[in-house]
Design a protein that fits this description.
The mean pLDDT is 92. A seven-stranded mixed beta sheet has the order 3-4-5-6-2-1-7. Strands 9-10-8-11-12-13 form a six-stranded mixed beta sheet, with helices on both faces. It is built from 15 helices and 13 strands. It folds into three domains: 112 residues, Gyrase A, domain 2; 141 residues, Four Helix Bundle (Hemerythrin (Met), subunit A), CATH 1.20.120; 156 residues, Rossmann fold. By secondary structure, it is an alpha/beta fold. It binds guanosine-5'-triphosphate and magnesium ion (MG). The site of guanosine-5'-triphosphate has 24 residues, from helix 9.
Length: 462
């Protein structure tokens, strides 16, 4: 069955589980009348309210009953009333705050469904906000990111997008392309009369200039991904170098087994942690050596595959080993890891100090060395992945990156058309393609598949 855009939808907007309160949300033409059927201002069940007559953005105390016949009291609630178009979805919206817990909210939801509401799909409230023109598509996507944000930087980039920073960028770019298009078309109109209003070179320069700005924004996606999803950091090194001990310290819990036996860690272990505002997806791996043990060898194979996928590596060399060992291990590190994205750590530096400036000494017995390491890790992320200032647009969504790449490609085609002295009509087609792709970012140009893909990833009740 295809869901009607105009029926009234309902969902529990707070997460499942025990909590102080639960909030249930209804949106649609009948949001008020459906709620009125099962709501009473006192526990008699008959003291009715007419939400149409109450002011918008007001809160009402009362009681919810199990059906329109008022047979059983379910809970005391507070009802917030929002009249369209001044609501989250742009429609009439009711939010029912009940006592928390799984049972009550589910019960109220089923009462409302029995009365005539429909279960909302994931993200359907936000989808309606988009379809009703309250927000554009990039802002709707920002809502999902905002909810998922785990760090300060992820929060600030999504709140910026929700406030319309990306939309504004898209509109400005759109205007620039329209200006160029009209110059091209103007010239086209007069071409037959032998008038050249704007020189082809100037048009080419304008498009090239615009494209280089767009390219920088498209490249910002790498930073955006780190901001949103975190950095995949792998702790690697020879057996017994102290990887699992460092992993446990960074997580602040005894997650991985530590022992003085080389080859303790077999399979890799992953955990998330935030260090100086940067989200790290940490992986502890099996120590790297050649082994005859079948299980250990599989573990080592997995270590290498994790190292290949990593954004960053912490490579541990045991300071207490002899000079030759350390020298070889440093060479091994330098030959196999990218300097920009890897940190060489001389572990257990309380036992012996390595006199080399190629790495940083760390001891679990020395807080200062650990703090230094953490600072080094977050600084490295910032310099390797986030070379953008706070005011710049950073793309955090792969869909936006794809759209922007298509815009850039269409503009490149326009440049080629200009260079080949094609007639203005052709250039104009390329520029219009660029406009279409740009419109996909904000949803001016969209289709059901794109929309379904986007809102499918939202939570229910948002
Ligand atoms: N003195 C000292 N000992 C340490 C330090 N860090 C780890 N160790 C010891 O080094 C030994 C090996 O530590 P692990 O963390 O298990 O080493 P690993 O690299 O995970 O070893 P595998 O899993 O076998 O590859 C343990 O006995 C730890 O207690 C340190 O900073 N100082
Ligand atoms: Mg280990």
């Amino acid at each position: 069955m295809k869901n009607n855009l105009y029926d009234t939808i309902a969902a529990i907007s707070t997460p499942a589980g025990e909590g102080g309160i639960s909030v249930l949300r209804l949106s649609g033409e009948n949001a008020f009348s459906l709620t009125e059927k099962v709501f009473s201002k006192d526990n008699s069940g008959i003291k009715k309210i007419d939400f149409q007559k109450t002011a918008s953005h007001t809160i009402h105390f009362g009681y919810i009953f199990d059906n329109a016949d008022i047979t059983e009291l379910i809970d005391e609630v507070l009802i917030s009333v929002f009249k369209g178009p001044n609501s989250y979805t742009g429609e009439n919206v009711v939010e029912i705050s009940s006592h928390g817990g799984f049972y009550i909210a589910q019960k109220i939801l089923s009462v409302l469904i029995n009365t005539g509401a429909r279960h909302a799909e994931p993200g359907e409230f936000t989808k309606r906000a988009f379809l009703n023109g309250r927000i554009d598509l990039s802002q709707a996507e920002a809502v999902a990111d905002l909810i998922k944000a785990k760090t300060d930087s992820a929060h600030s980039s999504s709140i910026k997008q929700l406030e319309g920073a990306l939309s504004e960028f898209a509109h400005k770019t759109r205007q620039e392309i329209i200006n160029i298009t009209s110059l091209v078309e103007l010239e086209l109109d007069f071409a037959e009369e032998g008038l050249e209003f704007v020189k082809a070179d100037d048009i080419k320069a304008m498009i090239t200039n615009l494209n280089s700005k767009l390219r920088r924004i498209s490249e910002s996606y790498i930073a955006g991904k780190v901001i949103r999803d975190g950095v995949n950091l792998v702790i690697a090194g020879k057996p017994n170098s102290g990887k699992s001990s460092l992993f446990n310290y960074l997580l602040n819990k005894n997650r991985a087994i530590v022992s003085s036996v080389a080859g303790t860690t077999r399979d890799y272990i992953e955990e998330n942690i935030i260090i100086n505002g940067v989200l790290f997806n940490l992986t502890d791996t099996a120590g790297l050596r050649s082994s005859d043990d079948e299980i250990e060898s599989e573990g080592i194979r997995r270590s290498f595959s994790k190292i290949d996928e990593a954004d960053m590596i912490l490579y541990l060399t045991d300071s207490s080993e002899d000079e030759k060992f350390i020298e070889d291990d440093i060479a091994n590190f330098e030959n196999n890891f990218d300097k920009e994205r890897s940190v060489l750590v001389f572990s257990k530096c309380d036992l012996k100090k390595v006199s080399s400036d190629k790495g940083t000494g760390v001891s679990l017995l020395n807080e200062e060395t650990l703090e230094n390491l953490k600072r080094l890790m977050s600084d490295k992320v910032k310099s390797a992945f986030i070379p953008f200032s706070k005011d710049e647009i950073v793309l955090t969504n792969i869909r936006h990156k794809f759209c922007l790449e298509n815009v850039i490609r269409s503009l490149e085609e326009a440049i080629t058309s200009v260079e080949n002295k094609m007639s203005g009509e052709f250039i104009s087609v390329d520029l219009r393609n660029a406009l279409n792709h740009l419109g996909e970012i904000t949803g001016e140009v969209t289709n059901d598949t794109i929309l379904n893909n986007i809102f499918m990833n939202f939570c229910i009740g948002k």
